Amino acid sequence: MRTIAVMNQKGGVGKTTSSVNVAAGLAVAGKKVLLVDLDPQGHGSLHLGVEAVGDIPTIYDVFTGHKPLSAVRHLVAENLWVAPSNVDLAAA
Ligand SMILES: Nc1ncnc2c1ncn2[C@@H]1O[C@H](COP(=O)(O)OP(=O)(O)OP(=O)(O)O)[C@@H](O)[C@H]1O
Ligand SMILES: [Mg+2]
Questions:
Q1: In the beta sheet, which residues pair with residue 74?
Q2: Model pTM?
Q3: Which of 91, 85, 89 is nearest to 35 (CA)?
């Protein structure tokens, strides 16, 4: 398994766009990909069609020890899963 982290302190420089498209490209190339959205804005999740509202478990539940990563991931396309986030993550 390989982990690719996309991070930059500066806003609006293409972190989300890069993350989502690298994830999608790797999935199309046959890799099994889990995009872990670690931004409380949740834009990566939204981009992949998951709006983490209501009772949908998020990466917050993983960080706080309430759920395993396997319980919060969503299959959004062939070979592509997303572990979504929302503003709750800011409290973790
Ligand atoms: N390679 C690119 N070429 C042109 N525009 C781009 C490119 N990558 C991203 N953008 C545009 O730049 C803007 C910011 O991109 P994005 O939301 O991915 O940045 P971000 O770093 O995730 O921002 P934030 O700090 O708010 O999370 C968006 O309007 C996006 O469409
Ligand atoms: Mg972003």
A1: 82
A2: 0.94
A3: 85
Q: How far is CA 47 from the centre of its chain?
A: 10
Distance 56 CA to ligand 2 centre (A): 20
Report the amino acid identity of residue 80: L
For residue 5, the model assigns a pLDDT of 97
Residue nearest to atom 26 of ligand 1 (CA): 12
Nearest to 80 by CA among 60, 59, 50: 50
- DSSP state, residue 10: S
Residue 15 has φ and ψ, to the nearest 5°, of: -60, -50
For the segment 4-16, the average pLDDT, to the nearest whole number, is 97
Closest ligand 1 atom number to CA of residue 17 = 18
Distance 41 CA to ligand 2 centre (A): 7
- pLDDT band at residue 59 using 50, 70 and 90 as cut-offs: very high
